[in-house]
């Protein structure tokens, strides 16, 4: 059997492979040879074979069949074998495999070996990958070695102990005695690893921390060591660019941080040394700055006096001016952490921070941006916003969304004037319009609505903005909404803030129609545009027919959303024309609502209605209470909720409030100019509707489809028909429109319709269209009833009619039982 | 703010994305290691020269520096001092340089096990064992000698 090829030979061979396939072939061949060699239990070449296997493993090839071989190498007496064996174990084994536990005994033996380098190997392996079980088994050995006078072993034992404590925190206690004199060592290796060990213990256990603070007086010891390092002369062994043992300095500073945190005495004891390090450390190279950085971190974290804190922030300020981008990065990160607590000190460095917005490195830019937003306040808003808008313009796409949001927030908090605010928003929309977050659109619309005095200015600017380019959806959406709302201001040529532009109604409709047609417009945007066009039907005078045409065209749009809207708007034109102007009225000032959740729509409706559902009479009602009581009696007891009708409308074409209610599911605020809640945005695709005064839910089905109407009452010439509508998205609500007609030859006057339903239902009666039912069926009284039927029970209703006819007062009670199943199921 | 800081792993790889050394200080499966290495190599190799030596990756901070054709890459936990990690990387390169005499990538390729031995003499569990260059090199030297001479029974 020829000797297996040497490691370097194999490496050389594999590197000659020209393709992946060739390499794989070589590897497979060699692996086969190694496998058979392992099978033969060859001791001589085991080491060489495992080494080769480790090389192939690094190339990405499987090497698990070598795991046991590593264990055999570890158990060997040859140092070479042990070295490779331990290396193999660290690379191929991990605590997930039970195999690794087989190492435990070997490690134990080697920890007690007569050669320190073997002990070192064992300590290193245990300290790098020892599992909890292994650590538990071998902690005692480690603790022993921690007390040895051999500094080579002592330093390794300290770090091994750190690993043991990380794996099995309960074992921390047993290492305590051994730490007693660790810091008296002269050897820097031991000092360094001891500080690491003490850091681990203090950080993990508050008891240990207290112990080391009080009993061991750790702080003075550390201060002494640090002082020696700084003051002592040149020590070639530990020197790095003129600084003595920077690694040790940094670890000491870190431990001081933990000791000084939340402890006045400790913090005071380290004050001087921190000031000394901060002022005396050489800053020309990275190593000095590394120490300064750690010092700053410590100063900021302990209870340092204000002078020291200012010193720290100034160091960070100087870092910002450093040519080395790494230093700038680190400074920005730290400033970001302290900006809340030391705001004024950080403000002083604002201009340097803002300059970092122009840095070439993305991480630095990002931090500079975050920090800039943290520093914006009422005093610097104008200047800062200029910089931030410039940044928004030129920054990478990954920043734009965050930057836009940040700008909006800052503008909202500190805008010096409404016009400035609108201008800023415009700038963002035109610069980064496609990156603006979805929730920005409704927020902006609300803001615009509430900036009453500059509506004309706003709509003009928005109009101009989309004239050239209507590809940025959020911008177009806001613009469309505004044009729909304030289009009249636009064509009338009023503008307070700037030169008004001349624009005709047709031109406005042109742009909105272009948005509708454009391929770039999303479905949501189209929705906005169509609704805007519709709204203009009450604001424009000469182009209503054009609007009607557009609306009817989209009634057959492939886009279901658009189609739905168009059909509804068509219905508005055809059937509900008398409501159109009220429905499309100008939006009142909105209350700020915080979150976006679907509101509890139907429940709240009743509460805010002028006609509550309880037995409380409305102020102008004609003795409803007694009538209510009557109903109660007649309908046999407690399972009936009487319903008070609203007073016959003294203002038949009343303002938005009640009529809006027809479309249901709006949260009215109970004021005469009741406004729908703007911020209910249940799904991203639906935001616009609630805002423009129309229901976000599809309007009820067209009256002639679906649910059959019934004749609820027909007697003495008075006929009352019920027609039904139900909402697709809220099937608990049924809207009944009653139509009362009079076939007699005389009018019926003072007509009042009342209704009552079983307790599981809720009922709401809206204003009737009039109180006179004209004779000869020449007209009808229309009234709307909304029924909430969450339990989907069979609808029953008691109605009471009172009217004057032929000079006498008439009254009748009836029960309506013939509701079609589709109206309640 | 936790000060328990640990280096999770160190990687050495070439500009062509060939791994030359991987030292893991936190138990990770082979599969997971491969995935992380592949991902991180991609991220680091995409960095432009003008960018700083630190980047955020997953929940870790990565400190990297290029020496000739080799990238030295350390993943540290969030609160650690990146600047001193750069010094740590530099110290390791110095050790390699002293040991191999003007070290280049080929030295690391053909003597990868030695690169590991030196690293394991310098760091343990991600922390520095000895801050003296001389001391670390002396230990390696003596251990190498032991390989030649052999060791007695334990």
Short summary:
Chain B: This is AP-1 complex subunit sigma-1A isoform X2. The complex is a heterodimer of chains A (825) and B (154). By secondary structure, chain A is an alpha+beta fold.
Question: Topology of this protein?
Answer:
The complex is a heterodimer of chains A (825) and B (154).
Chain A: H1 7-15, H2 20-39, H3 46-59, H4 67-75, H5 79-92, H6 103-111, H7 116-129, H8 132-146, H9 151-167, H10 188-204, H11 206-214, H12 218-231, E1 239-240, E2 243-244, H13 246-260, H14 264-280, H15 286-301, H16 306-320, H17 325-338, H18 343-347, H19 350-355, H20 362-375, H21 381-394, H22 397-414, H23 418-432, H24 440-450, H25 455-468, H26 473-492, H27 505-517, H28 523-536, H29 544-553, H30 560-574, H31 577-583, H32 601-608, H33 624-634, E3 640-642, H34 656-662, H35 687-691, E4 710-715, E5 718-726, E6 733-742, E7 748-758, E8 762-765, E9 780-788, E10 797-805, E11 808-816
Helix pairs in contact in A: 2-3, 3-5, 4-5, 5-7, 6-7, 6-8, 7-9, 8-9, 9-10, 10-11, 10-13, 12-13, 12-14, 13-14, 13-15, 14-15, 14-16, 15-16, 15-17, 16-17, 17-20, 21-22, 21-23, 22-23, 23-25, 24-26, 25-26, 26-27, 26-28, 27-28, 28-29, 28-30, 29-30, 30-31
Chain B: E1 7-14, E2 19-24, H1 30-45, E3 54-57, E4 60-67, E5 70-77, H2 82-100, H3 105-110, H4 112-122, E6 123-124, E7 127-128, H5 133-149
Antiparallel strand pairs in B: 1-2, 1-5, 3-4, 4-5, 6-7
Helix pairs in contact in B: 4-5
Organism (chain B): Echinops telfairi
Protein name (chain B): AP-1 complex subunit sigma-1A isoform X2
Domain GAE (chain A): 705-820
* Low-confidence blocks of residues of chain A: 594-704
**Mean pLDDT across every amino acid position of chain B:** 91
Shape of chain B: globular
**Main sheet properties of chain B:** 5 strands, antiparallel
Q: Strand pairing plus helix content of chain A: what structural class?
A: alpha+beta
Count every beta strand of chain A, where a strand is a DSSP E run of 2 or more residues: 11
Widest beta sheet: strand line-up of chain A = 4-5-6-9-8
Largest interface (CB within 8 Å) is between: A-B, 85 and 60 residues
Sequence of strands across the biggest β-sheet of chain B: 2-1-5-4-3
What's the alpha carbon Rg of chain B, rounded to whole Å?
16 Å
Q: Tell me, briefly, the overall form of chain A.
A: elongated
Distance between the termini of chain A: 89 Å
- How widely separated are the two ends of chain B? 45 Å
Secondary structure tally: strands of chain B = 7
Q: Please give the count of helices of chain A.
A: 35
Helix content of chain A: 40-55%
Q: In percent terms, what proportion of residues of chain A is strand?
A: 5-15%
What is the gyration radius of chain A calculated from CA atoms? Answer: 41 Å
What's the tally of helices of chain B? 5
Subcellular location (chain A): Cytoplasmic vesicle membrane; Endomembrane system; Golgi apparatus
Protein name (chain A): AP-1 complex subunit gamma
Main location (chain A): membrane
Biased composition (Polar residues) (chain A): 595-607
């Amino acid at each position: 059997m020829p000797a297996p090829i040497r490691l370097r030979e194999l490496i050389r061979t594999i590197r000659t492979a020209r393709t992946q396939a060739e390499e794989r072939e070589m590897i497979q061949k060699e692996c086969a040879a190694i496998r058979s060699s392992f099978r033969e239990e060859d001791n001589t070449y085991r080491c060489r074979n495992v080494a080769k296997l480790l090389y192939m493993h690094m190339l990405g090839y499987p090497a698990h069949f070598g795991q046991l071989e590593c264990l055999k190498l570890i158990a060997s007496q040859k140092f070479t074998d042990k070295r490779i064996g331990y290396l193999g174990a660290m690379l191929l084994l991990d605590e997930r495999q039970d195999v690794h536990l087989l190492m435990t005994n070997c490690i134990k033996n080697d920890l007690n070996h007569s050669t320190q380098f073997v002990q070192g190997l064992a300590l290193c392996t245990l300290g790098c990958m020892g599992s909890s079980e292994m650590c538990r088994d071998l902690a005692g050995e480690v603790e022993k070695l921690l007390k040895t006078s051999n500094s080579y072993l002592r330093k390794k034992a300290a770090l091994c102990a750190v690993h043991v404590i990380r794996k099995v925190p309960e074992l921390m206690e047993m290492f305590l005695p051994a730490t007693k004199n660790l810091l008296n060592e002269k050897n820097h290796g031991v000092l360094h690893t001891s500080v690491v060990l003490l850091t681990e213990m203090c950080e993990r256990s508050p008891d240990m921390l207290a112990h080391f603070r009080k009993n061991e007086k750790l702080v003075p010891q550390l201060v002494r060591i640090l002082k020696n390092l700084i003051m002592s002369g040149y020590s070639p062994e530990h020197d790095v660019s003129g600084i003595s043992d920077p690694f040790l300095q940094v670890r000491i500073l870190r431990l001081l941080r933990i000791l000084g945190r939340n402890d006045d005495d400790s913090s005071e004891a380290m004050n001087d040394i921190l000031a000394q390090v901060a002022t005396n450390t050489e800053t020309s190279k990275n190593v000095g700055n590394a120490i300064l950085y750690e010092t700053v971190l410590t100063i900021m974290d302990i209870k340092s006096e204000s002078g020291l804190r200012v010193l720290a922030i100034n160091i960070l300020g100087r870092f910002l001016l450093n040519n080395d981008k790494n230093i700038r990065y680190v400074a920005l990160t730290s400033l970001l952490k302290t900006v809340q607590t030391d705001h004024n000190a950080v403000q002083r460095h604002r201009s340097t921070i803002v300059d970092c917005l122009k840095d070439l490195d993305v991480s630095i830019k990002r931090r500079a941006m975050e920090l800039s937003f943290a520093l914006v306040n009422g005093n610097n808003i104008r200047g800062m916003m200029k910089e931030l808008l410039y940044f928004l313009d030129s920054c990478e796409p990954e920043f734009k969304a965050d930057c836009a949001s940040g700008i909006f927030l800052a503008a909202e908090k500190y805008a010096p004037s409404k016009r400035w605010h609108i201008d800023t928003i415009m700038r963002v929309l035109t610069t980064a319009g496609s990156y603006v977050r979805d929730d920005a659109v409704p927020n902006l619309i609300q803001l615009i609505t509430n900036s009453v005095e500059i509506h004309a200015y706003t709509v003009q600017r928005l109009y101009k903005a989309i004239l050239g380019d209507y590809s940025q959806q959020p911008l177009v959406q806001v613009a469309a909404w505004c044009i729909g709302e304030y289009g009249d201001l636009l064509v009338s040529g009023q503008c307070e803030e700037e030169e008004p532009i001349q624009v005709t109604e047709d031109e406005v409709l042109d742009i909105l129609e272009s948005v509708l047609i454009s391929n770039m417009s999303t479905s949501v945007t189209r929705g906005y545009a169509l609704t805007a066009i519709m709204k203009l039907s009450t604001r424009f005078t000469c182009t209503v027919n054009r609007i009607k045409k557009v609306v009817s065209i989209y009634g057959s749009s492939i886009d279901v959303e658009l189609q739905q809207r168009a059909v509804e708007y068509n219905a508005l034109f055809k059937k509900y024309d008398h409501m159109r102007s009220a429905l499309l009225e100008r939006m009142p000032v909105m209350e700020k609502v915080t979150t976006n959740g679907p509101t509890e729509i139907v429940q709240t409706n009743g509460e805010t209605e002028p006609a509550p559902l309880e037995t409380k009479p409305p102020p102008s009602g004609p003795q409803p209470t007694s009538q209510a009581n009557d109903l109660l009696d007649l309908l046999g007891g407690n399972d009936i909720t009487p319903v008070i009708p609203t007073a016959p409308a003294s203002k038949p074409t009343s303002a938005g409030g009640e009529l809006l209610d027809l479309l249901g599911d709006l949260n009215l605020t109970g004021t005469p100019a009741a406004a729908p809640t703007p911020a209910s945005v249940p799904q991203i695709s639906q935001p616009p509707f609630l805002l423009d005064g129309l229901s976000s839910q599809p309007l009820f089905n067209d009256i002639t489809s679906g649910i059959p109407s019934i004749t609820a009452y027909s007697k003495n010439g008075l006929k009352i028909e019920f027609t039904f509508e139900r909402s697709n998205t809220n099937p608990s609500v049924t809207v009944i429109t009653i139509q009362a007609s009079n076939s007699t030859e005389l009018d019926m006057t003072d007509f009042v319709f009342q209704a009552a339903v079983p307790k599981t239902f809720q009922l709401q009666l809206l204003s009737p269209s009039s109180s006179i039912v004209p004779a000869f069926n020449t007209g009808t009284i229309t009234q709307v009833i909304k029924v909430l039927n969450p339990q989907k029970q069979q609808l029953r209703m008691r109605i009471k009619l009172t009217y004057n006819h032929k000079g006498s007062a008439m009254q009748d009670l009836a029960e309506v039982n013939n509701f079609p199943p589709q109206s309640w199921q | 703010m936790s000060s328990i800081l640990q280096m999770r792993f160190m990687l050495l790889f070439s500009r062509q994305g060939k791994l030359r050394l991987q030292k893991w200080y936190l138990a990770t499966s082979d599969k997971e290691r491969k995935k992380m290495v592949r991902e991180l190599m991609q991220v680091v190799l995409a960095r432009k020269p003008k960018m700083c030596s630190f980047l955020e990756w997953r929940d870790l901070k990565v400190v990297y520096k290029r020496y000739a054709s080799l990238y030295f890459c350390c993943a540290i936990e969030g609160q650690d001092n990146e600047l001193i990690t750069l010094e740590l990387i530099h110290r390791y390169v110095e050790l390699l340089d002293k040991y191999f005499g003007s070290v280049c990538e080929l030295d690391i390729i053909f003597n990868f096990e030695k690169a590991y031995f030196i690293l394991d003499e310098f760091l343990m569990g991600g922390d520095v064992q000895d801050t003296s260059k001389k001391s670390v090199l002396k230990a390696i030297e003596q251990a190498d000698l032991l390989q030649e001479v052999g060791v007695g029974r334990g």
